[in-house]
Inverse folding.
């Protein structure tokens, strides 16, 4: 009979919980610990304990494990980059958010107004053009490279900062 991957668990405890639930419901399953495989990386960057079931039992198995998977996803914060649950909360600092936003508006608005009204006001010059261009470039640098971080968690395994509700 053909097997189908049901779920990939990050810990043996989670895998055993799923497997025990399947056994209670008379569904045959097989575990494969990808971390112990002879070909490292053959299963992707995130290894785990894969649980396989027969294809005829797949739909029933999904229905059985959905409550466990949903409650685990709701209660545990995990890293979106590496999948680790080894994360910690960090304080969100929006100390300079208003100042950065106002500075971006200034760096965008002044060159824009200069380009629109410079000829009408008779103030167009090469130096002023370069100043307007440098302000506009500074706007992009501040707006995109100096973005305000709203991350409230950090992964202790890969150092990825991310936001989780």
């Amino acid at each position: 009979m053909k097997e189908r991957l049901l779920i990939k668990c990050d810990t043996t405890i989670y895998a055993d919980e799923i497997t025990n639930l399947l056994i209670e419901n008379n569904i045959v399953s097989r575990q494969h610990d990808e971390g112990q495989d002879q070909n490292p990386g053959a299963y992707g960057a995130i290894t785990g304990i894969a649980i396989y079931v027969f294809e005829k039992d797949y739909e029933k198995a999904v229905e059985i494990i959905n409550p466990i998977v949903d409650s685990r996803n709701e209660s545990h914060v995990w890293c979106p980059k590496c999948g680790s649950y080894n994360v910690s909360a960090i304080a969100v600092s929006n100390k300079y958010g208003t100042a950065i936003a106002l500075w971006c508006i200034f760096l965008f608005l002044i060159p824009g107004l200069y380009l629109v009204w410079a000829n009408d006001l008779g103030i167009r010059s090469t130096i002023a053009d370069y100043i307007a261009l440098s302000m506009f470039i500074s706007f992009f640098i501040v707006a995109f490279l100096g973005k305000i971080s709203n991350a409230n968690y950090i992964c202790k395994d890969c150092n990825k900062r991310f936001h989780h509700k």
Q: What stands out?
A: Residues 19 and 86 are 23 Å apart (CA to CA). The chain has two domains: 3-76, 97-145. The first strand starts at residue 3 and ends at 9.
